[in-house]
Design brief:
415 residues; alpha/beta; Protein-Tyrosine Phosphatase, Chain A; eight-stranded mixed β-sheet; six-stranded mixed β-sheet; 14 strands
Length: 415
Amino acid sequence: MAVTYPEATDWLAGLRPAGTLLGLDTMRALTGALGQPHRALRFIHVAGTNGKGSVCAMLDSMIRCSGARVGLYTSPHLLSVRERIQVNGEWISESEFAQHAGVVRAALRATPQGTCTLFEAVTAMALLQFVAHHCDWVVWETGLGGRLDATNIVTPRASVITSIALDHQDWLGSTLGEIAREKAGIIKPGVPVLAQAGSVEVRRAIEEVARAQAAPLTWVLEEASCALLGEHQRRNAGLAAAVARQVGLEERAVQAGLAAVKWPGRAQLMTQPDGRRILLDGAHNPAGAAALAALLRTEFAGERISLLLACSSDKDWAGLCGHLAPLAARLILVPNCTTKAVPTALLAQRAREANPRADILECEDVAQGLRAAANDAFLVATGSLYLVGAVMEALGCGPQLGRGERDLNEWAKTY
């Protein structure tokens, strides 16, 4: 029986009680019931704390420039859950989304578990989409961690690990070494690994896993030019280029792809019709905030910065604020678009500690914050991908969403 798009979004939203659940048993059972679709695809599997989405976008762009058909699976999303599943840069359509949701829902009935998390369902739907479109390559981003992440059922042609920082400690461990070891769980026997060098603790953890899997490990130190702003993106570009060469892409495609790459919401500069500029960046932990701060100090030196800031309580929001608040002449604080929002009063207290001279304004929501910034020549919106998505929606980016999809999107952002 065919499933409509509203029925698909309702069903996925109904998976909400399953929450976040690390482990591969359900995903293995589900893909088994689906006929093992991942075995028909070639993957590049990407894990890490910061930069993995950017590296995925770069690889997607380079593969497209090579003339091959590429599937891209990333999370979370900014505007619509459909943007997580793309083929050659196009979001999955509503009709295909509904079709695959119906197939996954039916397949679940044949599994011992009988249900799954939203992330597992969408991951399975992505596999069906990439098989249906005969993708030559799939760029496959982990969701949370690596070792027990739902994406870790594949054996890729290359495993990629971007920079490691403290994040998701409740799930992945309290030290950089523990987190790195979980991320390195995507390493498969004999499969080449390319990674960005980090601290001694991080390098040791990744080297131990690679050695145990007899997987050749390459530390990538070089940088490369790309269309994205920031020195951190040049480091990401160096890693992505090394991966592309590892899997056999021609240099022409590597260079063309880096020059053409787009990755919304990551140091994305938007110019409004009245000439005002808005920089959107999804930095949500201190390491990401430090990279954004370096970008502002170098490529936007001398600018009077207004900072639209929202944070999640499960992140080190105080550390993030400490990096960014000193750069702002004005801080406009809004609650994040989830139940894990840091109250604006707490943000204001930390902002005053970090920058006593700044003008600080607390707002009830993003719409009020944007109205307050209407006369600011340069606005930086950051602290959370949820905030970035809300700003993009308010600015008219992306498609118009129905109520069912809007509700699902807001819930799915937490995955």
